[in-house]
Write a structure and sequence with these properties.
By secondary structure, the protein is of the alpha+beta class. Helix content is 44%, strand content 14%. It has 15 helices and 13 strands. The strands form 4 sheets. Strands 3, 4, 5, 6, 7 and 8 form a 6-stranded antiparallel sheet that branches. A hairpin with a 6-residue loop joins strand 10 (298-304) and strand 11 (311-316). Helix 2 (32-86) runs antiparallel to helix 10 and helix 11 packs parallel to helix 14. Residues 1-28, 228-232, 372-378 and 386-407 have low confidence and may be disordered.
Length: 518
């Protein structure tokens, strides 16, 4: 049978039907209660999806700010440590033309390539000198014995894991670990495009334009470095922090410090949590490494570290971050699908009763035809929509902050990070205001010990308070507070740095008041 459109539109619609669709052989109707329920489920699903996206965006923004802050502190520590080390007379003498490694290297052989080959043979097992070395290496070995142990101690107390001393001619005359870059000529065509060769040429180019050579600094993004080991991260990725070595106003060479990717991964690993991870980007804009904790997460954006060439990527999983909202959203989606399928099935079953019988037209006026009698179909009971009981959610249990024992403030990660913030900000303010370093701060304040390590001054205890990783288990917070107050008293300059020190000190005191220590 076929239904004419005019006849179809003139047909009455039974009570309780709000939607009608007519086709050639069948029709569909939807009870008003079911349509209302479907609309409510759909709107609830949209609201839940929006809540999941909002929670994910908030978590990603918080993780981004925390990572940028921690990487900024690590960058400033690497920058300040490289400045302090490169300006010491110890490094100045070690790479000097008349006294240190550069002079000793030149005495090995008139042929630099033969001298480099002899050194690589003598130190084939890393920094361990082999027995029976050539007698031509005697001057170099004497200089090596004089400086090497102090370099080991210096790098051991820093964020770096190696350093390279490069003379004015571009020859790598010393390396702590004696990797494949040791002895290379960075002006040679085979090595000039390596990361170390590019850093050396960049330093020399900037020195031509700089008024103050001590302010020249080159920091690279993560790159694949020569002579890498498994500890440096996948495929030996790391960063170089390089400065010129200036002695008595003359440039003696370049010192390049090596910062392994593993150090950055450990720093970012302390910020990772279920559903959130990080990856440092290399020079080509690709993830330099993807730690195990970050696998299975989706990228959410690339962000820069203020004042540095470093960039990082935030990785996240909306499902893991949504928590109970994710399960609620899935439940609504399944309920919407089930309700839609059930409504379709019921409407198909009720399709024959949709259209009322058409009126009978008499055949001829003289002989009226008896009206046809049609039995009305039995009424189909309309199922009442299910009554939704309001769900009263129990308030979430109060969970103490992770890593914050009730009676152990020293183990509180936020408290320890606050101590490091106060020290780093105070040291930066002192350096910029007084043009002095941490040695002078320790001596003038009288709060930190200064050690004479061979031929250089060291502040080993103070250095431990500049990174969360090296902070003692029971930190001397009173010395940290007194150091910040000493800097504020003796640096009267107003500005953003002073306010930063005061705010960080205020946060530290707030932690101490909560623990009833002051």
């Amino acid at each position: 049978m076929s239904v004419d459109l005019d006849v179809f539109l003139s047909m009455p619609i039974k009570q309780g039907v709000i939607g009608v669709v007519g086709f050639e052989r069948w029709a569909i109707r939807a009870p008003a209660g079911l349509v209302t329920l479907g609309v409510l489920l759909f709107l609830s699903l949209l609201t839940a999806l929006y809540a999941v996206m909002d929670r994910t965006d908030t978590a990603v923004a918080t993780a981004r700010d925390m990572a940028a802050h921690d990487l900024g502190i690590l960058y400033e520590s690497a920058r300040d440590q490289s400045a302090a080390y490169s300006s010491t007379s110890f490094i100045g003498y070690s790479v000097g033309r008349y006294y240190g490694f550069a002079s000793a290297f030149a005495q090995i052989s008139p042929n630099p390539e033969r001298a480099a080959a002899l050194l690589r043979t003598a130190f084939a097992q890393g920094d361990a000198q082999q027995q029976g070395a050539s007698s031509a290496l005697a001057p170099y070995m004497a200089v090596h014995d004089r400086f090497h142990a102090s370099f080991v101690d210096m790098i051991g107390s820093s964020v770096f894991n190696d350093l390279y001393l490069i003379d004015r001619l571009g020859r790598v005359v010393y390396s702590l670990r004696k990797d494949s870059a040791f002895g290379q000529d960075l002006n040679d065509a085979r090595t000039r495009d390596t990361p170390l060769g590019e850093v050396f040429r960049e330093i020399m180019a900037r020195l031509q334009k700089a008024d103050d050579p001590t302010q020249v600094l080159v920091v690279t993004p993560p790159k694949e470095l020569d002579g890498a080991t498994a500890g440096d991260g996948p495929e030996g990725v790391g960063m170089l922090v390089a400065r010129p070595v200036v002695r008595h106003g003359s440039v003696e060479g370049v010192v390049a410090f090596r910062l392994p990717l593993a150090t950055v991964d450990r720093r970012l690993g302390t910020l990772a949590r279920p559903g959130i991870g990080f990856a440092l980007m290399d020079a080509d804009g690709r993830p330099a490494d993807q730690p195990v904790a970050s696998r299975g997460l989706s990228p959410r954006g690339i962000y820069g570290v203020s004042g540095s060439p470093w960039q990082f990527q935030v990785l996240a999983s909306g499902w893991a971050l949504s928590g109970w909202l994710g399960w609620w959203t899935w439940g609504l989606a399944l309920a919407s699908a089930a309700g839609g399928g059930w409504t379709w099935r019921q409407a198909r079953r009720q399709a024959p009763s949709m259209i009322a019988a058409p009126p009978v037209v008499p055949a001829a006026p003289p002989v009226p035809a008896a009206p046809a009698v049609f039995l009305a179909p039995a009424p189909v009971p309309v199922m009442a929509p299910p009554v939704l009981e309001p769900v009263v959610e129990a308030p979430p249990p109060v969970v103490p902050l992770e890593g914050e024992p009730a009676n152990d403030l020293d183990a509180n990660e936020e408290f320890r990070r606050c101590i490091v913030d106060v020290m780093t900000l105070a040291l930066d303010f002192w350096h910029h205001s007084k043009r002095k370093g941490k040695i002078e701060l320790a001596e003038e304040s009288g709060l930190w010990r200064v050690y004479m390590d061979r031929s250089s001054l060291q502040t080993r205890t103070l250095d431990k308070y500049l990174l969360v990783e090296t902070l003692p288990r029971n930190p001397r917070w009173r010395d940290v507070v007194r150091t910040a107050e000493f800097v504020l008293r003796h640096c009267p300059e107003n500005g953003a740095e002073r306010e930063g020190v005061r705010e960080a000190l205020g946060r530290l005191k707030q932690h101490l008041r909560h623990a009833e220590r002051i």
